[in-house]
Design goal:
homodimer, 192 residues, Tetracycline Repressor, domain 2, 9 helices
Chain lengths: 192, 192
DNA sequence: TCGATTGTCTAGCGGTGCTAGGATCCGGGT
DNA sequence: ACCCGGATCCTAGCACCGCTAGACAATCGA
């Protein structure tokens, strides 16, 4: 039995290698450069091996997205818990979110821009995605204001952050005013 | 001389046909389906003809984007001018913007999601893009609030709208609450 | 030790954006 | 009226893409 277990371990290890390599390559040269041929070469296996782990490239993107969701949730929670007061917690959350998007553009794309074959905002949504939204809700739900549904407020705030993140990174917004825009958003949206 | 003029006209007409066909195909089947081969077949010319008008696929996307920018600016101005009072004008703008994104997803993608090779937020930004931003600024600049730069406020509001538009259309946000999220955004961000 | 199963690779399919080079057509000068 | 030269367009092909069939080798259980 231990032989099978070793093989299983090695197989799981190789799967992690695939995801990590895809992520690394995407961060270095963009997702367009993540082709199955290049990816296979980097992990020193042939192309078909990828398809014994994932249905296709889309699922690899999805795996990177799930990894990123967990990290994003962690970053948001860490930033929020290190801040004092509701207003400051929301500001810290916004900064952490935008910082994550700026520092991990490829992962952010996998999460919210590309098609990773994941279900969002549904019952069968993967746990890491639900948890990332929950991390936002924990902080933002407290500043929704009277009569405003916490979930709805979180969705709106998140949408606003997402818009700033993508437009800034795509060069649609001048990057030098990013912090002032964030501050404006926090001041106006959050009810403290 | 008139022969040359006729040829120029026909050439310009064919260029419009290419852009219109690309847009139509993209709205029908998504940008992935807009391949140079399919596009060439639809306009009943061979592939290389496309390259005598545009440097490549990217420039075709850019042309669709510019067309869309003009329409978006028009839609926003029309909606705003038909509304009474600053608060209602902002709400009408937001509805018009999101409506445009929902009704013309491919064009919206060409504008803000895909790479059309256009320069944004710079001096050499094409006029239609500047004008679309100007259309937002005309309305939103008036509700920025004291001490807040109108341009910065417009950028922030636009970013928020963009986030809601993309997340909703990508299935990241439940569509049924779209209007409530928009209303929340308008109420909190606009100072009337 | 043998047979079966599992694992991996080579080779190839149909598709992509893009381009080189040859054919064809047509206006303008003699 | 004719023929030349340039503009115009198409056929064919390049390198690459995601993905897969089928051959081959290595390994396990009997």
């Amino acid at each position: 039995m231990s032989v099978q277990e070793r093989k299983q371990r090695e197989r799981a290890e190789r799967e992690r290698l695939i995801v990590a390599t895809a992520r690394e390559l995407a961060e270095q040269q963009g997702w367009d450069a993540v082709t199955t041929r290049r990816l296979a070469e980097r992990i020193e296996y042939s192309q078909p091996v990828l398809y014994s782990h994932f249905r296709g490239k889309r699922e690899i993107i999805g795996a990177v997205a799930l990894e990123g969701a967990a990290e994003l949730a962690g970053a948001v929670r860490a930033a929020a818990s290190a801040a004092d007061g509701p207003r400051e917690r929301v500001a810290a959350l916004a900064r952490a979110y935008l910082d994550f998007a700026a520092r991990n553009p490829a992962v952010y794309d996998a999460l919210f821009q590309l098609d990773g074959g994941l279900a969002y905002a549904r019952e069968d949504t993967p746990e890491p995605l639900k948890d990332a939204f929950a991390a936002l809700l924990e902080v933002l739900g407290g500043v929704a204001g009277d009569g405003v549904h916490p979930g709805l407020f979180t969705e709106t705030f998140w949408g606003a952050l997402h818009g700033l993140a993508t437009l800034t990174r795509a060069g649609r917004l001048p990057p030098e005013d990013a912090e002032r825009r964030t501050a404006l958003l926090v001041d106006r949206l959050a009810v403290v």
